[in-house]
Write a structure and sequence with these properties.
Largest sheet: 5 strands, mixed
Distance between the termini: 31 Å
Radius of gyration: 13 Å
Low-confidence stretches: none
Order of helices and strands: EEHEHEHEH
CATH superfamily: STAS domain
Oligomer: single chain
Number of domains: 1
Strand order of the largest sheet: 1-2-3-4-5
CATH topology: Transcription Regulator spoIIAA
Shape: globular
CATH architecture: 2-Layer Sandwich
Number of helices: 4
Length: 130
C-alpha cells in the first residue's frame, strides 16, 4: 500500500504520506486501519500528504465513492478535528477540493493546501482557511 501513516502525539496529528500510485481501494483500506495505529486516539488532526503520489488512475467518481463510504461508515477519527490535504500538483489539488466540497456536511473542517507549512499553520489555528 502506498500510504505510510504515523501518529505524532506531540502535534496531535495523524500524518498520512502517499508515495507512488494511489487507488480508491488504498484509501479505503487505510481508512479502515486508522484505529489500529499505535498512539491513535479520536480527535487527532489529519494531514494527507500527496506530494509524492501518482494519481493517474484516481477519478472524480473514486472521490465520490470514498466520501460516500466514509460518510456511511463513520470512524471514531471523525470527531471534531481538522483534515488538511497537501497537494502541489493541479490534478490532486482539484481532486482534494472535490472531496472537500462533497464532505462539507461532515462535522469536520477540511482544507486543501499547496505546501506542508501552510497546512500545519492552519491545523495549529494560526492561519485562516484559504
Amino acid at each position: 500500500m502506498p500510504i505510510i501513516s504515523e501518529v505524532q502525539l506531540e502535534h496531535n496529528l495523524l500524518l498520512n504520506v502517499v508515495k507512488g500510485v494511489l487507488t480508491a481501494s488504498d484509501v479505503l483500506e487505510g481508512y479502515g486501519g486508522i484505529g489500529d495505529l499505535p498512539g491513535f486516539h479520536p480527535g487527532l488532526n489529519i494531514v494527507w500528504d500527496f506530494r509524492l503520489a501518482e494519481l493517474d488512475g484516481l477519478t472524480g467518481e473514486d472521490i465520490r465513492r470514498i466520501e460516500e463510504h466514509i460518510r456511511q461508515s463513520p470512524h471514531p477519527s471523525f470527531l471534531p478535528h481538522k483534515i488538511a490535504f497537501v497537494a502541489e500538483r493541479d490534478v490532486m489539488f482539484g481532486l482534494a477540493r472535490m472531496y472537500q466540497g462533497l464532505a462539507r456536511e461532515q462535522e469536520v473542517k477540511i482544507n486543501v493546501f499547496r505546501s506542508m507549512d501552510e497546512a500545519l499553520l492552519w491545523l495549529d489555528g494560526r492561519n485562516k482557511p484559504v
